[in-house]
TrEMBL record, chain A:
Localization (cell): Nucleus
Organism field: Arabis nemorensis
Record's keyword terms, sorted: Nucleus, Transcription, Transcription regulation
Protein name: Mediator of RNA polymerase II transcription subunit 27
Compositionally biased intervals (Polar residues): 1-21, 229-247
UniProtKB/TrEMBL annotation, chain B:
Family: Belongs to the Mediator complex subunit 20 family.
GO biological process, one term: regulation of transcription by RNA polymerase II
Subunit structure: Component of the Mediator complex.
Organism expressing this protein natively: Arabis nemorensis
Location of the protein in the cell: Nucleus
The protein, known as: Mediator of RNA polymerase II transcription subunit 20
Record bears the keyword Cytoplasm: no
């Protein structure tokens, strides 16, 4: 009985303000009304759900042979209240449609004051002030984000439960990974070396260097990721705060052709050691044009291939890397990216490998009067070593700038 | 957060610690191209529970250390070494304890000194003095390597830096040396990623050592 009364009140309250012309109200009031109606709709929907439960319960009880009378009464009562609820819902829905909430009849309203009614986006999000641009951005962004998350969840689950289904690049059998002794020799014999495609380079690198995390991004995506990284001043250690961007490389298997076209930034991360950023020009090619090193704890919009780290050690490596990059670009066609990435991986031992000349890890750099680890790794011999298959990353030499034979 | 090691001055048998050691250490930092950035202050307190009934005494630790760190001005850290507990609290906790009359500060110490920048390293050297006294109880030194926050990855770098530091300091023929205590952070529930809690635990150990040294010298 209570529910019938409630719905009558609903009728009256819904009718009364409608008699005055709604379009005379100021936008905030319209918005408030619309939000109120949406809330009412939600309450009615909840009532409908409860009513459905009660009806099902009544039917269940009716199926028991004992109670004969009560279920029937229950049934009649619930039937009446359900019909009323559905009626109310239709009413609210009509009002929402008229005021432009559920449909895009925005242009039909002549005096919308430039503000639009709350809109229910295609993916279910309710936007209170649906400014057109904001709406497009929000609906689009939320839809894209949700799709990404869904795709990531799907690929993760697929990998977990159906590992035998070939996923393309990432499906390395475990034995191969542990066997990767950092030497190119065996790979040199397995297949002809191909540096033409980004995916190929990436997969070769990941085979050789098990600790590196290689990810590729479009330019805008990289900017978002750089900004979302915890900065050096923040205490928050949760680097995985935005899982969407970390999944970019995993998404490759599903969106191969699309994404590769726009890849403009490659990130090499050695956790706790360094993060290197390489930019490709033009986007989608395998031609690097800049590289920079940063601390794994740095974050911010200055983190890009032409940015400079706040720490001296990474600043100096970046300078050294620029000359190495020029050398690789000059030494061959189309091979520069692979050599560059491989050379970057030799810095995994930055804080552990002592200088091959003086035997110490730290030394006072004469030019800058700073105490630094060995920042120089020779690059001239690398292309030749790769071709003959004699590269061993474990034994790669390192020198202090002052101990190094070449000047840079 | 960058990895930090905390060292304390261990005087040779028969000698005492004084402000002169601090001056020498400061000069030594500047001799290896350290640039003075400013003053350094930290405060330590030993708290004891105020018990209404003696019967409860066994439930409470005899005393524990509270420390405020210069890096984290809005926080206060507690360490109970015997239980391997380290806790981060808001700095207002001191006021709360006072109002509640739950714990009382039995010993209050200050660390006063200077902060230096050496490239990617940050050094702090300071003397430990009780409040209202110029009596130097000890000297502490903090060494931070700013670029990385993994304790294991930074280990070799820190060790070699300290070798360089010892070498530079030995030229001054001082009666003692700076000592670093290695400890197992895992016992305190801390990980390889450095945090202020790590620093708090280090200080608890350093202070314990320092007090033991002072007591040994005295008698």
């Amino acid at each position: 009985m209570q529910t019938l009364q409630q719905s009558q009140i609903l009728h009256n309250s819904a009718d009364a303000p409608n008699n005055q012309s709604e379009s005379d109200d100021a936008p905030p009031k319209q918005v408030a009304q619309a939000m109120e109606r949406l809330n009412q709709a939600a309450r009615v929907i909840a009532d409908i759900r409860l009513g459905a439960d009660r009806i099902l319960e009544a039917m269940f009880v009716a199926s028991q042979p004992r109670h004969t009378d009560t279920p029937l009464q229950l049934f009649i009562r619930e039937d009446a209240s359900m019909r009323q609820h559905l009626q109310d819902l239709r009413l609210i829905g009509k009002k929402l449609e008229e005021s432009g909430v559920l449909t895009e009849s925005l242009r039909a309203r002549s005096n919308s004051w430039g503000l639009h009614m709350p809109l229910v986006c295609p993916d279910g999000a309710v936007v209170a002030y649906a400014w057109k641009r904001q709406l497009a951005g929000q609906a689009g962004a939320s839809a894209v984000d949700r799709t990404r998350l869904a795709l990531k969840a799907f690929t993760d689950q697929k990998r977990r439960f159906f590992p035998h289904i070939d996923d393309g690049l990432k499906m390395e059998p475990r034995s191969k990974k542990t066997r990767a002794s950092h030497s190119l020799l065996e790979n040199g014999r397995e297949e002809p070396v191909d540096y033409k495609t980004l995916l190929d380079i990436q997969s070769r690198l990941e085979k050789l260097v098990p600790n590196v995390k290689v990810s590729t991004y479009g330019r805008l995506d990289w900017l978002k990721r750089a900004n979302s990284l915890p900065g050096s001043s923040s205490d928050d250690p949760t680097e995985a705060s935005n899982p969407i961007f970390q999944s970019s490389s995993k998404m490759r298997s599903g969106l191969q052709t699309e994404v590769v076209d726009k890849v403009a930034v490659i990130e090499l991360l050695f956790p706790s050691v360094f993060r290197a950023v390489v930019s490709l020009n033009p986007a989608g090619s395998v031609d690097p044009d800049a590289v920079a090193f940063f601390s794994p704890d740095e974050g911010g919009s200055y983190l890009h291939a032409r940015g400079i780290s706040v720490y001296h050690v990474y600043k100096h490596i970046t300078e050294h890397a620029a000359t190495a990059l020029q050398y690789f670009l000059g030494s061959g066609t189309g091979t520069a990216l692979y050599f560059l990435l491989l050379w970057i991986c030799t810095f995994e031992s930055l804080f552990s490998k002592p200088c091959s000349k003086c035997g110490r890890l730290l030394a006072m750099d004469k030019k800058s009067a700073l105490i630094l680890p060995p920042l120089h790794r020779p690059y001239q011999e690398l292309p030749l070593a790769v071709k003959t298959g004699e590269v061993s990353l474990d034994d790669y030499e390192a020198y202090h700038a002052s101990c190094s034979q070449d000047d840079s | 957060m960058p990895v930090k090691w905390v060292l304390y001055w261990q005087p040779n048998q028969g000698s005492t610690v004084s402000s002169q050691i601090l001056n020498e250490a400061t000069q030594c930092v500047e001799s290896i191209n350290g640039v003075k950035e400013g003053r350094w202050k930290a405060a330590l307190n030993y708290y004891r529970p105020i018990l209404r009934e003696q019967a409860n005494q066994a439930e409470f630790p005899r005393d524990f250390l509270g420390i405020s760190l210069a890096d984290q001005p809005s926080k206060y850290y507690f360490i109970i070494r015997s239980q391997r507990i380290v806790l981060e609290a808001d700095s207002s906790i001191q006021l709360i304890m006072e109002k509640l009359q739950s714990y009382k500060s039995k010993v209050a110490l200050y660390i006063e000194g200077f902060q230096f920048e050496l490239g990617d390293f940050r050094l702090r050297v300071g003397k430990v003095v009780p409040t209202h006294s110029e009596n130097v109880r000890g000297i502490v030194m903090e060494v931070e390597y700013l670029p990385i926050s993994s304790i294991e990855k930074a280990r070799k770098v820190m060790e070699e830096f300290l070798d360089m530091w010892h070498e530079a300091l030995s030229k001054r023929s001082l009666p003692g040396k700076f000592v670093n205590i290695d400890l197992n952070f895992a016992e305190f529930g801390l990980t390889d990623s450095y945090t202020p809690q790590h620093t708090a635990v280090r200080y608890a150990l350093v202070m314990a050592q320092m007090i033991a040294t002072v007591q040994a010298v005295r008698g």
